[in-house]
Amino acid sequence: MAERVVLAYSGGLDTSVGIGWLHDATGKEVVALAVDVGQGGESMDDIRQRALDCGAVEAVVVDAKNEFADEFIVPALKANALYQKRYPLVSALSRPLIAKHLARVAKELGADSVAHGCTGKGNDQVRFEAAVAALAPDLTSIAPIRDLALTRDKAIAYAEEHGLPIKQSKKNPYSIDKNVWGRAVETGFLEDPWNAPIEDLYEYTQDPSVDRPADEVTVTFAEGVPVAIDGRVVSPLEAVQQLNALAGKHGIGRIDIVEDRLVGIKSREVYEAPAALALIAAHEELENLTLERDLGRYKRGVEVQWADLVYDGLWFSGLKRSLDAFIDHTQQHVSGDIRMTLAGGRATVTGRRSVESLYDFSLATYDTGDTFDQSLAKGFIELWSLPSKISARRDLPSHSSGD
């Protein structure tokens, strides 16, 4: 039996041509793997058939939408994960999931290598290969575009020469990646960071400047996981899908950022992630209500490190697993309801409630019924500021001059 390589297959030009290109360059039989992470568009059956028509010896399709939501989006939500405080890791979350299935299919079918369609200057090559290395260190990773000099011009010529069933239309000026957690757009005129995005860029969100009636939504969480929308029980996937539609209608989730790539360059990226930003806003506010102060402060630092690790392709690393254990422990009291108003590109929290709440009305109120003993404040402040007072005396000019 000939050696095999499992290719992460999107159905587009590069990976379609990559099937034959890989076989010609390596002599290996190519198995195409298409993973549905909620990207929409073509049916997965059509994509599977195209892979076979382009020369794949087998084509495997995996419906991973619920797996993606349960095992990748939910941990990101618990971590309030925003790279550089703004990007909710849209592509970075899907890559380790796809890599997981690449490694699984390769083992099941006896392949000795896997392949992906990434270039040599992006983050995704690292995410795929680092994940495969962590899950199946015996597998070799191949990147046709990076390693085998498959350029777009060569891909088009190859497709025409071999009569591949790929519709050629005017080249899309953008590079786009999407899944149920969001959509990423780059290249084209966006490569000049001075150029403003245009409405034609967007698909998941409507123009936030258009005047439309606000919507109100209540999200219910149980231990950090969204379990109901407006009182109706939902799975994590359904919560994301419903909020994508509802928040997207109001233009919520548009992000325009100059991003620090792992490979050391800066790139201008435009994202739209309506459900992601709305859910993170709601989750953070519920944590404000239910986490004690020191735990909340410490967790915010962990969130930054967690997002950096995932962005950098280290989903399966030991440190990431340990941070997951900490974050999961912080969620044991993060249950309750968050009410939000959705309008004009913003998801604004207007109400919060929880049986796990640390908010004590009798301590917080300034009106009748106040149980806070203000007489304790004077002594507390004196003790709290004592180290500053002592060091200030030491640092006085008269003390330091030696006179």
TrEMBL record:
Domain of life the protein comes from: Bacteria
Catalytic activity field: L-citrulline + L-aspartate + ATP = 2-(N(omega)-L-arginino)succinate + AMP + diphosphate + H(+)
Enzyme Commission code(s) on record: 6.3.4.5
Residues annotated as domain Arginosuccinate synthase-like N-terminal: 4-165
Keywords: Amino-acid biosynthesis, Arginine biosynthesis, ATP-binding, Cytoplasm, Ligase, Nucleotide-binding
Pfam families the record matches: Arginosuc_syn_C, Arginosuc_synth
Binding-site positions, ATP: A8, Y9, S10, G11, G12, L13, D14, T15, S16, G117
Keyword ATP-binding: yes
Pathway involvement of the protein, from the record: Amino-acid biosynthesis; L-arginine biosynthesis; L-arginine from L-ornithine and carbamoyl phosphate: step 2/3
Annotated L-citrulline binding sites: Y87, N123, R127, S175, E259, Y271
Domain Arginosuccinate synthase C-terminal: residue ranges: 174-390
Residue positions binding L-aspartate: T119, N123, D124
Localization per record: Cytoplasm
InterPro entries in UniProt: Arginosuc_syn_C, Arginosuc_syn_N, Arginosuc_synth, Arginosuc_synth_CS, Arginosuc_synth_type_1_subfam, AS_cat/multimer_dom_body, Rossmann-like_a/b/a_fold
Xref: PANTHER family: ARGININOSUCCINATE SYNTHASE
Protein family (similarity comment): Belongs to the argininosuccinate synthase family. Type 1 subfamily.
Subunit architecture: Homotetramer.
Record protein name field: Argininosuccinate synthase
